[in-house]
Amino acid sequence: MAITLMNPGGLPEIDVYHQVSVATGSRLVFVAGQVSWDADGVTVGEGDLAAQVEQCYLNVGTALAGAGGSFGDVAKLTVHVVDWTPDKMPLLLEGIARAAAKLGVPPAAPATLLGVAALDVPEHLVEVEAVAVLD
Questions:
Q1: Residues 83-109 pLDDT 10s
Q2: 8 Å CB contact between 19 and 6
Q3: How far apart are CA 106 and CA 112, in angstroms?
Q4: Alpha carbons 57 and 65: distance in angstroms, whole number
Q5: How far is CA 64 from CA 83, 98, 118, in A?
Q6: For 44-70, what is the mean pLDDT?
Q7: What is the 3-class SS of the chain, one letter each residue?
Q8: Could you count the other beta carbons within 10 Å of the beta carbon of residue 60?
């Protein structure tokens, strides 16, 4: 893999992501923000944050596979959640865990979580984008 994940001393260790990724590959893959659409463009999990997070991560996995990669190649994730409040964290983590179980790998790259007012359509509650590095 072209990515090495780490938690340098002096920074907290977070359960669901690492603080730093070091990329040594030569091909960059930029995955557009993925929402909870299925392959037909139908929203999965309308009104259900955990279900939408799961679908977003699965869609990122599909996009990465299309480029010849996987979550093991991800250098950075950005997660946008509509009307974010800390009490939504268990649902976010549940969705990530469900996707990780289906993908067979924890999506543990450095991540940024942003609360946003809205996304592309009102039924979308979350959007996940990724940057990956391949050999």
A1: 999 999 999 999 999 999 999 988 889
A2: yes
A3: 16
A4: 12
A5: 28, 18, 25
A6: 97
A7: CCEEEECCCCCCCECCECCEEEECCCEEEEEEEECCECCCCCECCCCCHHHHHHHHHHHHHHHHHHCCCCHHHEEEEEEEEECCCHHHHHHHHHHHHHHHHHHCCCCCCCEEEEEECCCCCCCCCEEEEEEEEEC
A8: 24
For the cut 90, the answer to whether the pLDDT of residue 133 exceeds it is: yes
Which amino acid would we find at residue 49?
L
Instruction: Provide the residue count of the chain.
Output: 135
| pLDDT surpassing 80 at residue 1 | no
- pLDDT tens-digit profile of 103-126? 998 888 999 999 999 999 999 999
